[in-house]
């Protein structure tokens, strides 16, 4: 009986996050059907769904989604790699920290979206411009959290590693990196949000493909179902990204949960 109650409770907890979105969609549909809301400006969820099916059957939707995912992924990989390397270098080396950190912090305070005119001039309006902008956006959250995670390592753990005469590589892989992992993953989760925000802006300003372009193009024709569809897709992609980040945390930080359970 207790096991059954625990399973029921777990199922209820899994369904709880979807409660508010489902209720909002139902209220939205009812409001449009009852003409409390003008469907010309706020189409019903069913109308948005029908438009999504139509664009999917035409091949337009998956093509634009694929292009947006490519831009976001490449920007995340490039910017994340640069931010991680800089964070590790400045966290481990006092000389590197003194040389680079102050400059990085100054550049970080410049809103990266303000760089759009320069990036368009330098790279044009093709793929390199959009990937570069996303990379710049995600680099700083990864850098800050990697640096903070390494600097926050318990000195007693460092002393213990030294007492065991670990090499520098062993010290990094067995003590420093695992200890900094929670903070690094926190930076990754924040970077994922910045990634989608940056991509949305870049695709609505200068693009001929992607979800943002699809939304901007629909705006010119007052195609409200497509506009709402693009917004919902961004929301879903953001949720999926957050779910992936949470999954990585559960996998990579499993040792902490095991340690805490002992």
Automatic annotation (TrEMBL):
Membrane-related topology note: Multi-pass membrane protein
Range of residues in the leader sequence: none
GO BP term, example: alkanesulfonate transmembrane transport
Major localization listed first in the record, in broad terms: membrane
Keywords for the protein's UniProt record, in alphabetical order: Cell membrane, Membrane, Transmembrane, Transmembrane helix, Transport
PROSITE patterns found in the cross-reference section: ABC_TM1
Superkingdom of source: Bacteria
Segments traversing the membrane: 12-31, 69-89, 109-125, 131-150, 227-253
Annotated ranges, domain ABC transmembrane type-1: 65-245
One GO cellular component, as annotated: plasma membrane
UniProt cross-references to InterPro entries, sorted A to Z: MetI-like (IPR000515), MetI-like_sf (IPR035906)
Family per record: Belongs to the binding-protein-dependent transport system permease family.
Protein name as catalogued: ABC transporter permease
